[in-house]
Write a structure and sequence with these properties.
The protein has one domain: Sandwich (Jelly Rolls). The chain contains one helix and ten strands. The strands form three sheets. It has a five-stranded antiparallel beta sheet, with helices on one face. It is globular and about 40 Å long.
């Protein structure tokens, strides 16, 4: 599933998806350790995270200018909110080193529930917030593949 706005979709930004999916299919994902990994430095890197979910309202929306986020849940479940329309206002300075900026809540956003084996691809400049609990706190192991241009 890809959620985007037709007027904001840039096909060239999505050229590394096949390599990312092949990585997910061909590795023992449960064995990946927390931290950053660089299996294909030219196309993407992997950030492995482990955490307990919380009320999603505890988190700010964020955007990335230079990388797509492919969120893949190895274990657990979480809610992710993704905005596809509406203006947002910056609430932090853009951090170029981390490629992140926090923004206000968009006027329209989708609530996505990911379970083990599910992923969502979030486009550049699409506001999103993660780590939300569904019905109860869940221990999550997640890979975020950061796909470059």
């Amino acid at each position: 599933m890809l959620i985007s706005n037709v007027n904001e979709f840039v096909e060239a930004d999505y050229q590394h998806i096949r390599a990312a999916i092949n990585y997910l299919k061909s590795n023992q994902l449960a064995d990946i350790t927390v931290g950053r990994h660089y299996p294909d430095r030219q196309k993407f890197y992997v950030q492995c995270l482990e955490y307990g979910t919380e009320e999603i309202e505890n988190f700010n929306f964020e955007i990335h200018r230079n990388r797509l986020d492919l969120h893949y849940v190895v274990s657990g479940e979480e809610r992710i909110d993704v905005g596809v329309r509406g203006e947002v206002t910056a609430i932090s300075e853009y951090d170029a080193q981390r490629d992140i900026q926090y923004v206000t809540e968009p006027t329209v956003f989708n609530q996505i529930i990911l379970h083990s084996g599910d992923f969502v691809l979030i486009g550049m400049n699409e506001p999103h917030r993660t780590n939300g609990k569904v019905d109860y706190v869940s221990s999550v192991k997640k890979l975020v593949l950061k796909l470059g241009r």
